[in-house]
Amino acid sequence: MLQKNPRYYPAEDVKPAKATYKVRQNPPRIRKSITPGTILIILAGRFRGKRVVFLKALESGLLLVSGPYKINGVPLRRVNQAYVIATSTKVDVSGVDVSSFNDAYFARSKDSGKEGEDEFFAGDAPKPAIVSDQRKADQQKVDAALLKAVGAVDMLEGYLAAHFTLTANDKPHLMKF
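The chain above was modelled as a monomer; its predicted structure follows.
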């Protein structure tokens, strides 16, 4: 049978409810060439041109790296994998305990950046320490284990201390890192 159309239409269009579903974030993929202990070259940022040791991948997809600080001045730091070159040089980092480091460890506190007018004009007041004592202790603990691993490989300390640069005659597309 034919269905009869209604005599009137509603004044407002009633949209059907959409099915809701939870979007699940897939874990980020780390390049195959980047494994714990790989020496990386940082390409951008404050520490560009420095060679660092990759320690682990964090949940956000960022890489946890360290200089070690004593060798080249790069502290424990998160780096995006798009801004690094992985080299073929590797170090045994099985003795380095990095289980306590996650993205929350590096997060800044909410109230640290807010400075009121009174604090601004009280210029001579002592400033709080930029790096906390806990961060310094963590850096020393990781550096101690890393320096032991770096010392086991011949000439690696000098390699990590050296800056990475290219000259006009270098052809990066032909280089093997």
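The chain has five helices and five strands.
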